[in-house]
Design goal:
Oligomer: single chain
Order of helices and strands: HHHHHHHH
Distance between the termini: 87 Å
């Protein structure tokens, strides 16, 4: 434990940033799990309700379900009378906003992954300087105890920085993978929704022509 105290401010700064990274990772992971839904089941459920002409109930389902996919469907239903090109633009903007909200804290992990090794390296240089200063102050009868403690503290800071960086890299990779999977689900949802709305419009037109 005394070695850790020899690490000084930089060591504890590294520990604090690593703990912050753990907190961000856990928060984002729980958030992604909370909004994880089967996109095909969700869309099919909404489409079945729409087939019965219950648009308000479909909107209620979207409002009650958390996540970017229901938000995307809400926008699609709200602007279903728009032209296909305009509807694509609306859905693309909605998807971009939802993904940006999810990635907001994830980028912090990428920053910490680059920052923590640098802090550890600075700690190494600071510890080395302290060791040389301790030896110089006791010359010519230098005792190695103070120098060894300074070097040990420097190494503790370096190790903490590398461990923290490794965690941040791994955590960032996990979150990016999950976000990419969600992006694919949203792309699929846009395609299926546009196809459904176009098909519904054609069927409505055919029904009107038949009645005429």
């Amino acid at each position: 434990m005394s070695v850790l105290w020899e690490g000084g401010v930089l060591f504890w700064l590294t520990v604090a940033l690593t703990l912050a990274a753990v907190g961000i990772f856990v928060d984002r992971l729980l958030r992604l799990r909370k909004i994880a839904i089967d996109p095909q089941d969700f869309l099919q459920g909404v489409f079945n309700v729409l087939d019965k002409g219950q648009t308000d109930e479909a909107l209620a389902i979207c409002d009650e379900t958390p996540g970017p996919l229901p938000a995307l469907m809400t926008e699609a239903l709200a602007h279903r009378e728009s032209e296909e090109g305009r509807l694509r633009e609306i859905l693309a903007a909605t998807a971009h906003a939802e993904l940006a909200r999810l990635e907001r804290r994830t980028m912090v992990l990428s920053l910490l992954a680059q920052l923590l090794p640098l802090i550890g390296l600075i700690g190494t240089f600071v510890g080395g300087y302290a060791a040389l200063a301790a030896i110089d102050a006791q010359a010519p009868l230098a005792q190695t105890g103070a120098a060894i403690r300074a070097v040990a503290g420097a190494l503790a800071t370096t190790i903490a920085g590398l461990v923290g960086a490794a965690f941040c890299y791994a955590a960032h990779h996990v979150l990016v993978q999950k976000t990419d999977a969600l992006t694919l689900d949203m792309d699929m949802a846009v395609a299926l929704t546009l196809d459904y709305l176009a098909r519904s419009e054609r069927e409505a037109g055919d029904a009107d022509a038949a009645h005429a």
